[in-house]
Amino acid sequence: xxxxxxxxxxxQTFVRSPREAGWSLVELTISLFLLMAVSLFGMNTIVSGFTxxxxxxxxxxxxxxAGIETAYAQRIVFNNISSDPRxxxxxxxxxxxxxxxxxxxxxxxxxxxxxxxxxxxxxxxLDPTTAAYSYMLxxxxxxxxxxxxxxxxxxxxxxx
Length: 160
Fold this sequence. Notes:
Number of domains: 2
Shape: rod-shaped
Helix content: 25-40%
Oligomer: single chain
């Protein structure tokens, strides 16, 4: 018989031929190794998804929140931009001073995902005669996980 027959039953005792002596141990070792490799890969995948180590999840959440910032900047009433507390106005060429807040950008099974949003607004004079203004509304969404940071910028130019 070949390797497929691990043990033979003869006269109430187990008898093996000299050729089959170590094959059951080899087959058992290979099977255990393959089982452990597959289970280790599966556990690593599951754990990385639950502990937010999958970097693409954080990037997707940051991108989505930057899209929300863009939508809000496009829909704000033009006359209310200068008085809106979300964006702090500074003159072009001055030091960039913005309003920084911590926002929730998403939810994982174990915790909420937070990011820093810095909003700035530059005011430009288009025509000195009519005193028409334009605004550049910028939002910087920065997500940090450990030593890595991911920044998504949203810029909206509004004019009268």
